[in-house]
Amino acid sequence: MELLRKLSEAAGVPGYEEEIRGLVKAELEGLVDELRTDVLGNVVGLKRGSGKSKNKKKVMLAAHMDEIGFLVRHIEKEGFLRIEPLGGFDPRVLLAERVVVHTSSGDLLGTIGAKPVHILTEEEKKKPVEIKDLFIDLGLPAEEVKRLVRVGDTVTMRQEFVEFGEVVSGKALDDRVGIYVMIEALRKVRDHQCDIYVVATTQEEVGLRGAKVSGFEVSPDVAIALDVTLACDVPGVNEAEQITKLGQGVAIKLKDAASISNPKLVRRLVELAEGNGIKYQLEILPRGGTDAGALQLTKEGVAAATVSVPTRNVHTVVEMAHKGDIQGAIDLVAAFLEVAHEGDYTL
Fold first, then answer.
1. How far apart are the first and last CA of the chain?
2. Neighbours of 67 (CB within 10 A)
3. Which pLDDT does position 338 carry in this prediction?
4. What percent of the chain is predicted at pLDDT more than 90?
5. Most buried residue, 259, 263, 320, 325, by most Cβ within 10 Å?
6. Which residues on neighbouring strands pair with residue 36, listed in sequence order?
């Protein structure tokens, strides 16, 4: 899990994925035959298949590198920073968290604060916390803050990656765990006749933008997005609304708000899971989407689906995934890549 720790703790908000991109490129070196970066910052690797045909099937794996975060929007005269979100945060989980402000002079540690509850009026206490109410305190004099920080500097959450019980927890498992599954599945796969394109995409959290660009360029026959999904198996949620359960296996997505998975591809993934003794669960996600939503609309259309890792506390700094579910995702994706050339997914 050392690689997953590095991926989780690396910085990379939408549009500013430099640090995580460098880490992914270093891991893919030696695993692929070709490696490049496109204009939008997607990392695209090609591992050629053993098939003899000039028209070998192209299979694309996509996992997004970006994490939700912020830009500095305004610097108050007292030196506090106001922030603009990049991706969807629940403001309730942000209070009293540590952050890192990435400046041209180096990284600065800070905390997120708001007006103290002790002095809120009764009317203010009834209102939900909003992003506009929050600020970052760098613990520096205002003059120093204004010298070091610029509007547009990026902000990421500060959290260490930990393992305990049967799980891992940290920030940005959405979707660094997908990146991890992609890399480890590529290591695991043996003989494969199809050409495998592995793409670490950018700007997924703000509109699947990297997948739109890379999907058009690769033009795959089959595409699988690798992402997290909600595991809502917690107190207060009835079973019908739990989406998935932690530790009950890799999730094979049927639909979400951005895509309906190719039914033939779903059946093939289910067959492979059952044939290889891989624990799985079927997933329907009522809100949210993955890169599959962009990939299936590429050119004249692509057979696409999503393989998900059930995750609790999504879009917080304590996202939690089960080690068994992660391994199941690796095993399922590797098994699919070895037989992907056999399938016809035209509906």
1. 39
2. 26
3. 96
4. 88
5. 325
6. 44
Beta bridge partners of 331: none
| Cα–Cα distance measured from residue 231 to residue 238, given in angstroms and rounded to the nearest whole number | 12
pLDDT for the residue 61: 98
Please tell me the predicted confidence (pLDDT) of residue 322.
98
Q: Please say if the pLDDT value at position 239 is more than 90.
A: yes
Tens digit of pLDDT for each residue in 153-200? Answer: 999 999 999 999 999 999 999 999 999 999 999 999 989 999 999 999
Which one from 204, 205, 283, 319 is the annotated catalytic residue? Answer: 204
- Concerning whether 271 is annotated as a catalytic residue, the answer is no
Cis peptide before 175 (omega within 30 of 0): yes
Q: How many domains does the chain have?
A: 2
Which class for 74: exposed (0-12), middle (13-18), buried (19 or more C-beta within 10 A)?
exposed
Q: Which residues are bridge partners to 312 per DSSP?
A: 320
Confidence of residue 127 (pLDDT cuts 50, 70, 90): confident
Domain C-terminal end among 157, 189, 206? 157
The domain in which residue 286 lies consists of 2-67+171-342
Which residues 6+ apart lie within 8 Å of 10 measured at CB?
19, 20, 23, 172, 176
b/e per residue 18-55 (b: at least 16 CB within 10 A): eebbebbeebbeeebeebeebebbbbbbbbebeeeeee
Same domain, 10 and 47: yes
Position 306 pLDDT exceeds 90: yes
What are residue 334's DSSP bridge partners? none
DSSP 129-167: P-GGG-EEE-SS-HHHHHHH--TT-EEEE----EEETTE
Task: Tell whether pTM > 0.85.
Answer: yes
Q: Is residue 188 part of a domain?
A: yes
Q: What are 292's two structure tokens?
A: 């599959």
For residue 57, is it within any domain? yes
The contacts of residue 52 (CB under 8 Å, 6+ apart) are none
- Find the angle CA(249)-CA(255)-CA(260) to the nearest 5 degrees: 130
Please compute the mean of the pLDDT values over residues 288-303 and round it to a whole number: 95
Per-chain mean pLDDT for the chain: 95
